[in-house]
UniProtKB/TrEMBL annotation:
Belongs to the ferredoxin--NADP reductase type 1 family. Signal peptide: none annotated. Its EC number is 1.18.1.2. GO terms for molecular function: ferredoxin-NADP+ reductase activity. The lineage of its organism: Bacteria, Bacillati, Actinomycetota, Actinomycetes, Micrococcales. Its cofactor is FAD. It comes from Leifsonia aquatica. The keyword NADP applies. FAD binds at A14, E37, L45, W360, G367, L368, I369. Keywords: FAD, Flavoprotein, NADP, Oxidoreductase. It catalyses: 2 reduced [2Fe-2S]-[ferredoxin] + NADP(+) + H(+) = 2 oxidized [2Fe-2S]-[ferredoxin] + NADPH. Residues 5-168 form the FAD/NAD(P)-binding domain. It comes from the Bacteria. This is ferredoxin--NADP(+) reductase. The keyword Transport does not apply.
Amino acid sequence: MTKLRLAIVGAGPAGIYAADILLKAERGFDVSIDLFEQLPAPYGLVRYGVAPDHPRIKGIITALRDVLDRGDIRIFGNVKFGTDITLDDLKRHYNAVIFSTGAIRDADLDIPGIDLKGSYGAAEFVSWFDGHPDVPRTWPLEAESVAVIGNGNVALDVSRILAKHAEDLLPTEVPDNVYEILQSSPVTDVHVFGRRGPAQVKFTPLELRELGELRDVDMIVYDEDFDYDEQSKDAIASNKQVMVIDRVLQQWRQREVGAASRRLHLHFYAKPLEVLPDEDGRVRAFRYERTEPDGEGGVRGTGEIREVEIQALYRAVGYFGSPLPDIPFDAKHGVIPNHEGQVLRGDDNERMYGVYATGWIKRGPVGLIGHTKSDAMETIKHVINDQGNWWSPTDPDEESVDNLLRERGVEYTDLDGWHNLDEHEQALGAERGRARIKVVPRDEMVRVSNRTSVSASSED
C-alpha cells in the first residue's frame, strides 16, 4: 500500500490537530507523520501564549497530550526549520509538508512615538511572563502608570498581569524570575484603550469577568462611554456574548472605588494618535482622539484630543506571522499565500506542490480552537486528494531523519524527552505547593528532556 510520509513544521494546536485529523481520516494509504518544533517543548502558544493564571484555557494541553501519547506521531523538538532542517531535506525524506508555525510577532501600530523607550509589543511581554526560552529573563517594570492599546483578550491578559499582585500568581506555573520582577513592580494604574465602544469589544466574557476578580484592584469605567447608539443597543439585545459583557461593565459602574492600591481603567472610543516622549526619549504620555459611533458599525473622530500621563505602553493590536526560508510569504497580511491550505507561489500564484499550511500562518491570527480544527480539516482534505502531486522522496526511511539531525549535531528532543521535562517541571512545583515551575533556559530544557541530571534550583 502507498505510504504518505508527512512532515509538519510547528507542534502547536494547529499542527497536532492536523496530524490527528489525517490519522483518523478515510484514506487509501498508510501514514507516517513527523512533527518538527523549534522549541524543545510542544504546544506552541498554549504553553507560551496563555497567561499562567488561565489554567482552564491551558486545559487544551490535555487533549493535545492525548493525541501525542498515542505513539503514532513522532516529534522532533529543538529543531529550527531553515537551519537544522531545510525544504530540500524535507523533499528528500517526505512526500509533503504542512507548515503550522502560527503567528508570534506583534502587529504594527503606526503612530508617532511607538518605538520610544518604554513602548513594547504585547506578544514579547506575554512570551516573557510565560517563560519563553528565547526572550530575555528580565523585564523593565518601572512604570507607575501604563497604557495598553487594544480591546482583545491579549490586551486583557497583559493588563491583568500588570495590575495583579504578584503573590496571587504563586499558585500558578509562573516562572520564578517573572514572579520576582512582578513583585517589585511599582505600578498603580493600568489604562486600557480601544477605538470603539463597549458593545464592539473583541474580548470574551470570561476574560472580562476575571479582571473584576483581581484582589485590591479597582475597576474604573467611565459613564461617558455608555451612551449607546441604536446599533450598540441592538448588539446587546441580539448577541448573548455582548449582553454578558455589557452586564459585567454595568455592574462595575455601580461599584464603590477608591480603596484599592491599584486601578485598572477601561477607556473606550479612544483612537491612538501619538506616544509622547520625555526629555530622555522615554514614554511620557499617550495622546488619543475621542471617537463616537458613526451609525454604520464603525466610529468617527470627534476632534477632541486627550492625553494620559504614562511611563510605559504596550500595544496589543494583534499577532503577525513570520516568513520561512524558501516558502512564499504575504508580508502585508503575515501569512503564507494559499488556497484552502494549498500553498501558492508568490510570483505567479500557482500551486507549490507538496507544500501546505494550516492555523494562523494560513488564515491569520483570528479564531479559537474550533476554527483551528476546521482549518486543519480543510488542509488535510487537500493533502489526501493531492496524492498525484506529492513529492517522490529519495530517502523516505524514518531513521534517515534521526541520522540527518545527529550528523548535523542537532540536540533534538522527542516525546519521551517532553515527558521528562513535563514531570520535572511538575516535581519542581510540587516541592513548593505549585502546579509547576517552568524550566526557562533552552539548554536546560534540552538537558532535562534528554535525561541529563540537573539541579532543582537551576530554573532560577
